[in-house]
Every structure is written in C-alpha cells, then in structure tokens.
Amino acid sequence: MTLRILAYGANGAQMTAGTQALVDAGHHVRAFTRSSNGAERWQAAGVDVVTGDMSDLGALRRASEGQDALFLHVPLITDPNDDRNLYGMNALEAAREAGIKRVVWNTGGPIMDPSSETDTGAVVLRALQEGDFSFLGLVPVTYMENLLGPWTVEGLAEGKLSYPTPSRFKMQWGAAADFGRVADKAFQGDLPNEVLPLGGPAALDGDELAGIMGEVLGHSLAYDVMTAPEFERQLGALAGPHVAEMIAGMYGGVQANPDQFQPGFLADPSHIETRFNLKLTSFADWVSDHRNHFIQQG
C-alpha cells in the first residue's frame, strides 16, 4: 500500500536515513524541514520539501493537508530556546485537523517519566494516547550513524576505532534506516499503540565493533576509549555546545558507572523483527554500506 507520508526532520541525523527508506519503499513523502539544506537532493528523489518552523502551526497545517500518515520526530536534545513540547503538540494538532490518524514516532530517546509535564516524549505520548491516533513509538537505543563522526573516522588511519564508551560496554547499535523500514511495515498493518525500543540485531561492545569494522574494511582495528571531554569538543564543532555538553555528560556517566547504565542500552530485537516481519540491519552490513565514507574520510 502506497501512502502519502509527512516526515519531520528529514535533514536531521536521526531521520534522514529513515525518510529515505520510506522513499525507497515507494511511498510519496513530503519532508518538513527547518532548513532548505538538502532540498535539491530530496526533490531529485521525488520528495516534496516544505521548509518551515514547527512553532508555526499554520505552516504545519498546510504541510499536513492531503497526507495519509505521519513520520514524526521531535529532537530530544536541541537548542535550549527550542520549545520542543510546542513542536510536538503542533505537529499532532495539525495532523488531527488534516484527518491523519496513523503515526510512527521516533521518540529521540527514552521516556523517563510518562507523567512528566516537561519531558517532550511524555507529553507527545499522552497526546497520542488521548487523541484519535493509531501509533507506534520507536525508542532509539543508539545509532550506528554515531560512528560516522570525526571522533571515529580520524582514528581509522591509525588503526583504531574511537568512541566514548568502555571497551566491554555492550550496546544494541541500530541503523537509522531501520526506523523507516519499520515504519513502512507498521503503516501497512495495525499500529499497536505502543512504544518499543529499536536497536540492532546484536549487542556489541567496543572490541566487537572494532573487530567487525576492521574485517569489513580489510585492516585490523583496535578499540580506543576516548574521553568524554574530547568527545564533547569534537561534537560541539558539529552540533553546538549545548547539545555536545548534554550528550558527552551522558557518556561520562556511562564511563563512571557502566553497570548502572548497561540495561538502558540493550533491547530484545525479536520484539521488532517478529512483529513486523523484518531483519534489522547488522553492523557488518551497515559498515559495508558506508565503506566509501570510512575509506575516504579515514
């Protein structure tokens, strides 16, 4: 079934690959983005690009007109001046007015307190539950795309894979494209009105990541635990100081108390694979897909 799908954040790191997966599945996608960056690429792929701000309810109403479904994302960590709660509520209000009832939502991160009035994930979840929506919430465990940053690629030429988690700390690394692949499957059937974690098919620690990446790239790699301050410095150049401080602070906590944080980075892949009849992307396949990036940048 081909649908007209409004996707939010298609230029963002968490949603670009997922939006492309919906395009690849044959859906008619309309991308709502804050910036016109990338508009030509999306338009060449047949995507209708709408530029605007999620604080502008009128713009979201116009973007929602004529759409069948919503692929929603409100970033968990943004500029402190962003009103994320308003963004999420505006998107759902515009969808409701346009008659859109089917929503797949990338939560951007865990919902720590469902009763919270300030946590955007909790606010959006209650609006979905209380509104006339059929929805699926997908909680990212951690993204393989995190390894595309300079903190990783710069060390490859020196034979190391660097990331700010302990070498034996396991994470369910997931591919961002799988959010779109799962959304495609979910939109074809009955949306479960649940929030499910979405990671990868295997829990891998740093040494295992380095081994798999080295095998795919054809040279040996050793895992290197970078410090949280160094990660913050490099991320800050790309995402700004506020985002970098928040994310690096989390990784600093992981380094200091790995046992405390470990359960939050694991997820049973069968909950997704069995329910939606698909295989999640393996780390080896993901590295192979991005081989040119690692070779050229490293």
Describe this structure in words.
There is one protein chain. With 298 residues, this protein is α/β, with parallel strands linked by helices. The protein folds into 2 domains: 4-140, Rossmann fold (3-Layer(aba) Sandwich), CATH 3.40.50.720; 142-175 and 200-267 and 281-298, UDP-galactose 4-epimerase, domain 1, CATH 3.90.25.10. The protein is 44% helix and 16% strand. The protein is built from 14 helices and 11 strands. It has helices at residues 16-24, 39-44, 57-64, 84-97, 120-130, 150-156, 177-188, 206-217, 228-239, 241-256, 258-261, 270-276, 283-289, 291-297, and strands spanning 4-8, 28-33, 48-51, 69-73, 102-106, 134-140, 142-143, 160-163, 173-174, 194-198, 222-225. Strands 3-2-1-4-5-6-10 form a 7-stranded parallel β-sheet, sandwiched between helices. It has a two-stranded parallel sheet with strand order 7-9. Helix 2 links the parallel strand 2 and strand 3 (48-51). Helix 1 crosses helix 7 (177-188). The longest helix is centred in the last third of the chain and has 16 residues, at 241-256. It is globular. The chain starts with a strand and ends with a helix. The mean pLDDT is 94.
